[in-house]
Amino acid sequence: VEMIKEFIVFSRKYSNNLEKLKDKFKRMVSTDSFSSTDWNLLKEGVNIMGHGILDSLKKNYPDLTEENLRYCALICAGFETDELAILWDINSDSIYKRRTRLRQKLGLGKNQDLKKFFENQMEDLR
User: How much of the chain, in percent, has pLDDT values that exceed 70?
Assistant: First the structure.
């Protein structure tokens, strides 16, 4: 969780210099370095803040994998495409492909905004 907070601070600080941001975070963290405890803490935090959003997604969309839920948690936590690309150590095109596959699993249109979808889900859970 602390690494994620630090990541957000750095991403804002270096938002105008994507290469510097990417290099900084490649050295600092990747999702490979997250332990299962780190992921569980992230998901728990998102679940608390999101009124049980991840539990709801898991229940209503049983085809979501653990990796899908982690990705959902990061989106719900406010990560943008460029930040996700850096965190997962993949290019932005790969993030767009992940979003497309996730939209399919959620039964959404190909242009429907995932962040808005999650926000609406959280509002409904309130």
Answer: 80
Q: 22-43, pLDDT tens digit by residue?
A: 666 555 555 556 777 878 888 8
Residues of the chain with pLDDT under 50: none
Q: Which two tokens stand for residue 22?
A: 């990417």
User: CB-based contacts of 94: which residues, under 8 Å, 6+ apart?
Assistant: 85, 88
Global pTM?
0.72
Q: CA distances (Å), 3 to each of 7, 25, 42, 62, in order?
A: 6, 10, 10, 29
Yes or no: say if 69 and 102 are a contact pair by the CB < 8 Å rule: no
Angle between helices 81-88 and 92-106 (to 10 degrees): 110
**H-helix segments, the chain:** 2-13, 18-28, 36-49, 53-60, 66-76, 81-88, 92-106, 114-125
C-beta of residue 56 within 8 angstroms of C-beta of residue 106? no
Rounded CA-CA distance 46/74 in Å is 8
Give the alpha-carbon dihedral of 99, 102, 107, 111, to 10 degrees.
0
